[in-house]
Amino acid sequence: MFEFGTMIVTLLAFLIMLAIVIRFGFKPLSNMMEQRRLHIERQIAEAEEGRAQAERLLAEHRELVDQARRESKQMVDAARARAEEQARQIVAAAEAEAARLLEENRKLIERERQEALDSVLNQVAGLTVELTGRLLRERVTPEVHQEMLKEAEKRLGELVC
Amino acid sequence: MTPFPTLFKGTMWATNLTTVAMTVLAGLLVLVFVRLGVRRMDMRSPRGMQNVVEWAADFVTNMARETMPNERIVQWVLPLAFMMLVFLFFANWLGLIFVVDLKIGHPIPWLGITAEDIAKAHQSGKDFAIELFNSPTANMSMALGLAIMVWVISHAVGLRHPLQWLKHYKNPMAILEEITNPLTHGMRLYGNIFAGEALIGVLAGAPMLFGFIPWSLPLLVVWVFYSAFVSTIQAYVFTILMTLYIGNKAHGDHNHQATA
Lengths: 161, 260
Fold this sequence. Notes:
Distance between the termini of chain A: 173 Å
Order of helices and strands of chain B: EEHHHEHEHHHH
Helix content of chain A: over 70%
Number of domains of chain B: 1
Distance between the termini of chain B: 47 Å
Mean pLDDT of chain B: 85
Structural class of chain B: mainly alpha
Strand content of chain B: 5-15%
Radius of gyration of chain A: 62 Å
Radius of gyration of chain B: 22 Å
Oligomer: heterodimer
Shape of chain A: rod-shaped
Number of domains of chain A: 1
Number of helices of chain B: 8
Mean pLDDT of chain A: 90
Largest interface: A-B, 30 and 43 residues
Order of helices and strands of chain A: HH
């Protein structure tokens, strides 16, 4: 019942078909599946790398933002301090100027008052002299005139002193 | 039983031409199946037959990983295991689809058809016919041939580490196993497929009740479905036993990944 011929020839046929199927069917298939495996592995590695990079970048950006915030706060603080200082200086300068102007004006007023007083005094003196002169020319004797000059000298002396 | 066209009939070298032709046909079907899958092959979005072929390849890969000790031998045996599974699937199914009998009226001596056979058939009131289409695995010589091939491969793999190969035979029962394993391996396949087809033949050829009621038809349908199931299972069983037998003999680094 067992036939060696059948066994040998079918085995040969099977092996030939095996070689053909491997060469034209299985090799392309397994190559493709291997390529896909490598592709997926590469994609996973790239995704992991990308995520790590993204995390690193995010941390970097967060650090940068923090730094920028700190720096801007410092700048604002410095600017505020400088502005306050400037304002104080301006106010001080203005106060000093105001004080100077006040003093100058006071002196001016004083001087003008003095001048006005002086001129009034001069006029009064002139009028007095004129009236007195007119009066004297009409009514006074040389004796009285002499006595009055003396007294005037005396008074003037008192005034000057 | 229907005879086959046979070369060298009556000698040790008898060659069943139907079985040889069906082996080639099953191999061609495997080629067509795989070529349909790898045609318009797409790595990113597999479609249609490519999914089926890839599923088969994955199935065989997992099967080999579960039964073999290391990844190197798995990768080595993968093409053979893939071919064996798909080939046996097609081979076992071939005989279920239909059967071709050729009626012969005159003797053809070189195919082993003698005038005596024809005369004997005619005496019992039948035509003499030869079978041209059946499962190649329904032939004992063919099934045992595959089992012996697996046996030879397993020892070729085992002899890469001769000391470990020899150590296996400290237990004398292992020698008995060397005979029973290939024998049961081949006979299981042959028996299942042959029994399925033999019973299909009997049911299909049964005489009708009162000459017109085909009482055997429901039984035939059930039996064909059952045989289809058995054919599929036997393809799986033969392949997994092949990886198991080769894996048992494969020594070397054991990075066993049964969980893969």
